[in-house]
Amino acid sequence: MDIVNLDHVPAFETKDGSEIRELLAHRNSAIRNQSLAEARLGVGQATTEHYHVRTEEIYYITQGTGRMRIGDEIREVRVGDAVAIPPGARHKLWNTGTEPLRLLCCCAPGYEHSDTIMTE
Fold this sequence. Notes:
A hairpin with a 5-residue loop joins strand 1 (12-13) and strand 2. By secondary structure, the chain is mainly β. It is built from no helices and eleven strands. It has a single domain (6-118), classed as Jelly Rolls (Sandwich). Helices cover 0% and strands 48% of the residues.
């Protein structure tokens, strides 16, 4: 049985500049076809715009407020919002609030640096 507690997961920086704590993925569990991580953006920070060739993502906001851009569409996001990001869609996230922006990132297939293409 694989159970991973967020408090015991080391952080690393993804290619887009966000701080990630990978909870479950093929690197640390029996999971093979997806990954679950928590991402954090500090006040005033943003990810670098990018897309994933194969991976579809779901962002679920758990703390803070932000602005999400997918393609040419921009929307405000807040706690409780789930965002669908299809493969190939350019996207960027800004923390527009006064506290860290925290979100769960579900990726299928699981996150890999090699599948992240930077566009800015």
